Structures are given as C-alpha cells and as structure tokens.
From TrEMBL:
The keyword Iron-sulfur does not apply. GO terms for biological process: protoporphyrinogen IX biosynthetic process. The porphobilinogen subunits are added to the dipyrromethane group. Its cofactor is dipyrromethane. It comes from Entotheonella factor. Pathway: Porphyrin-containing compound metabolism; protoporphyrin-IX biosynthesis; coproporphyrinogen-III from 5-aminolevulinate: step 2/4. Residues 1-203 form the Porphobilinogen deaminase N-terminal domain. Its EC number is 2.5.1.61. One of its GO terms (molecular function) is hydroxymethylbilane synthase activity. This is Porphobilinogen deaminase. It is an enzyme of class 2 (transferase). Monomer.
Amino acid sequence: MRLGSRGSPLALWQTRAIADALQLHHPGLQTEIVIIRTEGDRNRQDPLSVIGGRGVFVREIEKALICGDIDIAVHSMKDMPTEQPPELHFPVVPARGEVRDVYVGRDGQPFTGRRDGPSIGTGSLRRRAQLLAVNERVELREVRGNVDTRLRKMREGEVDGLVLAAAGLIRLGREAEITEYLPMDVMLPAVGQAALGVQTRRGAAVEALLAPLHDAATGWAVTAERAFLAHLSGGCMVPIAAFGECRGERLSLQGLVCSPGGEQVLRHGAEGPCEQAVSLGQELAEVLLASGAGDILRAQRDGA
Ligand SMILES: NCc1[nH]cc(CCC(=O)O)c1CC(=O)O
C-alpha cells in the first residue's frame, strides 16, 4: 500500500502512525510512504493569505491519489478544505488526541492573565482574532515555516511566543516546550484540529483495510465541525473555530466566528444525537449567522 504524505516532519510522523496502525491490524501488509511536495511546501516566502490558503497543502496530493500514484493520502484534517474532488472521501477518521492550542513562551511566562503585550508569531486569523479578543496589546507577527523552524525562530528572539496546536508539538516529541494549554474559552481550536484526514478514492479496495482505524466519536465530532464550517462557507481565510465532543450517544458542539481584530466574538453551543452531526453543525452555523456572523464573514471576504 502506498501512502502519500507531505515531507514535513509532522506530516511524516502522522503518515507513519497510519502505516503502523495498518500493519498492526494486518500483519505482513507492505507499506510505502510516498513524499509529495505541495505548493505550500515550495512557497515559503509569501504569507498564506497571498498564495491562497485554500488547499495549498493538499492539491498535489489529491492529484496523486486520483491518478493512482498513491492508494491513500494522510493529511491533517485541519488543512483540508470542506470541499474535495467528487471521487475522493475520508472513509475513516482515527481517534484524535489533544485538541487544544498551546502557548509557547520564550521566557516561560504563560499568556493568559498577562497585562503587557507580548509579540506572538501566528499567521492564523482564527488565532490572531482570539488572542486580540483577550489581550488587545498583543503584537502579532507571521512566522512561517514548519513547527521546528518556528520554534527555532522564537528561541532566537524573533517573537516572544508562539501559538501552536498541542497535537503537532506532542507528535514531534516537543511537548516539554509547552508553556500553557490555552483553555477552550480563550482559544477555540480549528475545525478538525488534531484529527487526521485519511483520504481514498471512493470505493477503493483499501477501504476494507482501513476500517479498523475508525473512531466513531472522533468521526462524529469532526463531521459536525466540518458541516459547521461548510455551512458558513468558510475556509481558513476567515476567523472561524469549532470543537465537537461525543459523550456516549450525545454530541456537543461549540462554534465561534469573530472579527479579525477580535472586537466582536460570536460564540454559541449546540447539542444533539451523534447521528445528527451534520444538521447539528448546520444549525449551529445558522444560529451564528442569525446573530451577525454573516456580516463579519462578508466584510472579511470583500475586504481581505
Ligand atoms: N496549519 C499547519 C498544521 N496543520 C496541522 C497542525 C498540527 C496538528 C493538527 O492540528 O492536527 C499544524 C501546525 C499547527 O497548527 O500548530
């Protein structure tokens, strides 16, 4: 089985984890990891908002999947646009780990409760807006590069701190650098954060082999989060966040839309049966639209 992956250390860790899980369930299965360079990997200079965030880390990988160069693709679910080529899908969603974002501070001082305005490296509109909403004095900078590069630049003094996904740091073995886990009420994570997107051609024979990797609770949660995002027609260019969680048969979902400067934060929650994950996400999006999210999203799209 050929598994397509980006070449970053995080992407390779994630793809190896899927290959290992497959071999555990199917002893003797041969796997090969095929590294695919994406536009996001090639273009390290321009901000993501200029090269067009939508799908820049996935398009080439999807092409390889469609033409049969690889059998499955392993992505960070967070980086996947809500729409994908009609012949592709995610047949399984493996269990996700720690979903929260974290603050990594150069001097080890936590972010929450600070009165001064630290300089923080993050290009994510979602993170920028939520940081500004709790501390309008923060100075936001874009620090590009993969997780290791960003940590190095921060340690060298380019910024006082970084906000990153806990999952990425933990996977790279750099959990010890975490200064503070940001509470969900300060920093709601990205749709699909910490989950892996295991993508195949619809109906491919490999789907039977993937079946044991599915985690129903993560699957429902991610389905609701992505339905929420899709209903807002949001990509990664608008400050949108969501977090779904299954407890038994029930699914709870929190969703957030905010203005880029953090002045306006619209946040609501919903709860329902797991089986209704899609409508739960859509209904929560409707609640936010009714409370003014449409204006924020429109202004962001027109003005950006
Ligand atoms: N945007 C890049 C990206 N894609 C997935 C992760 C981390 C793992 C995850 O959230 O699934 C990261 C780094 C980060 O946001 O800190």
